[in-house]
Design a protein that fits this description.
The structure is a homodimer of 342-residue chains. Chain A is built from 12 helices and 11 strands. With 342 residues, chain A is α/β, with parallel strands linked by helices. Chain A has an 11-stranded mixed β-sheet with strand order 3-2-1-4-11-10-5-6-9-7-8, sandwiched between helices. The longest helix of chain A has 26 residues.
């Protein structure tokens, strides 16, 4: 645990709404948090236009960057052609240790490619993965990969299981968190070749593996800490449940807003509905760690608002404060090396 | 439209709970419906043990079959080794036109392989797909494939789009229903090779294609009638939203059951909560058509209860009554042949 101030670089241009979301998020974060300083990376003029009275509060600085990575830009082009993009410079600040972590709501592919190029991977890990905790019936379930890797081999899925396991162990203080592999059934014969290969590799490892799990198990099984899947499936499953959650919120709002009686019912039900809405509000779950890298990078939803982006900053802070990176690096290295020497 | 009685064969041994669910479902269905007769296919003794007083009501018959397909049995083994299974015999009854449709909650892989072998495919269609309607913010959205095909090429996804389009056109009476392709972003560069290939094929077809859609669009976009994906992703997305829906139902029940005040709030809120729970109750959406076959086969969830299975019977009935098969066959054939001759 460090008592020093924590420095977090923010890609102020990233995401669907760029500085209009990132700057207000930084301002509201810094107002309530006294352990961090934030660096807004990006076009200085644009950033300043979102500062009330053009004034920078304490512990908030601007680091100018002249370029922006577009949301639909090819990762390879962003990496090669935009060395002064807000995204790249924010990651560079982590590399040079001027920042302890960075947060971006930008183009996922570009973020992954750039972070991998600049920060490098942990030993024996091929690719970064995006991990986040989702609300579950009792507590929460961590899911990875949520969209960094579209095509994954069994070996990649195995590495995700290793990284996820060590991250959750470090963050949640669970000794040997349980790992499930997402599949379309629990029977051995089910699944594609990648899933079957990963099943064999994880079964053969020291991880606390519970076998195949299904989509509903993410939310309803209390004995699973981590669910592993490829980024294509993980991202679609995540967005699908977000869609359903939005649909339910909308239906409840409409239902309770109908007439005077339902409005009275809503008043009495308020604490229950609020608790539920807090639990399924995806903004509260916004901010996913890009793990496997030698540096802390947090990915925010591209379309999030200031509340969601501020939550992603809080996640970056927590990772720094609890030295998640150091813990994960040591353990992943040990596990992967033990495997090679076997 | 037929005025004759509709005959539906039920695989009474299929699913996690077999006859203990299928027989009560058949009894409750036949009690309220006077247009159908049902054939319970399977072990006669077992089936009879679930009949009150061992009495068969009118319009319910038993067709004995000596074997059962296990939930974890390899499809190829079931197909080759169990020619007198309840599943196989139910499908045979459709082939011989002794039944207009069949319903099974059994092993998905075996059902697909057997149905394909016995009933054969529509011209130019390679594989059956599982399609079902999910609740959406306004109306509903049809999704396929929900688990029949684990690995799909771009051509397969294209064929799903064609079949889905014609099915929804026939069932919902929409002239040119809109089709979206499930992906992890709406940008052209996103997605795996199969998705990109399907995107090109569907764009080039006469289908009413809206392009890539994301998971939340299933529930929140009002302009999409059909969402196409492979069976691995579709099944996991479906199960994931079911899990979240269960979690929310549980949370609401717990919240409203807490004390006397919340119980009063629950009473007043009852109509709203009931409406919501009806909307997200997956039993009401139970029963998915296996399309692409020259015969009507409806797949029920393996773990469903009698309410859910009865709903699957109702779906089979609707498909027969509206001659969905005839309509889809004509249109799919026309579209696929138009494509070849181009």
């Amino acid at each position: 645990l460090t008592t020093d101030i924590i420095t977090i670089a923010l890609d102020a241009m990233g995401g669907d709404n760029g500085a209009s979301v990132v700057v207000p998020a930084a301002l509201s974060f810094i107002e309530k948090d006294f352990e961090c300083q934030l660096i807004l990376v990006g076009n200085e003029e644009k950033i300043r236009s979102y500062l009330p009275d053009n004034k920078l509060p304490d512990r908030l600085t601007i680091h100018h960057a002249s370029q922006e990575v577009m949301m639909d830009e090819l990762p390879s082009r962003a990496l090669r052609g935009k060395k002064d993009s807000s995204m790249r410079v924010a990651i560079d600040l982590v590399k040079s240790q001027e920042a302890d972590a960075c947060v971006s709501a930008g183009n996922t592919g570009a973020l992954m490619a750039t972070a991998r190029f600049v920060l490098k991977m942990l030993p024996s890990i091929d690719r970064p993965a995006i991990i986040s905790a989702l609300p579950a019936n009792r507590g929460r379930t961590w899911v990875l990969d949520l969209g960094a890797n579209i095509d994954c081999s069994g070996e990649h899925l195995f590495q995700f299981a290793v990284m996820g396991s060590e991250l959750v162990s470090a963050v949640d203080g669970i000794d040997r968190p349980t790992v499930g592999l997402l599949n379309i059934g629990q029977e051995e014969m089910k699944g594609n070749e990648q899933v079957k290969a990963a099943h064999a590799l994880i079964s053969d490892s020291p991880l606390n593996y519970v076998g195949y799990v299904e989509g509903d198990d993410i939310f309803m099984r209390d004995d699973i800490d981590i669910v592993v899947t490829d980024g294509f499936v993980g991202n679609i499953a995540l967005k699908s449940v977000e869609g359903l959650a939005k649909m339910i919120s909308t239906a409840l709002k409409e239902g309770f807003g109908k007439n005077i009686f339902t409005k009275i019912a809503a008043l009495i039900s308020m604490p229950i509905l609020k608790a539920l809405s807090r639990r399924i509000d995806h903004r509260r779950y916004n901010g996913a760690a890009l793990i496997g890298l030698k540096g802390i990078v947090v990915k925010s939803h591209g379309g999030t608002d200031a509340v969601g982006f501020a939550n992603a900053i809080a996640i970056a802070k927590k990772e720094v404060k609890e030295d998640v990176l150091g813990k994960v690096e040591d353990k992943v290295t040990a596990l992967m090396q033990g495997r090679i020497s076997k």
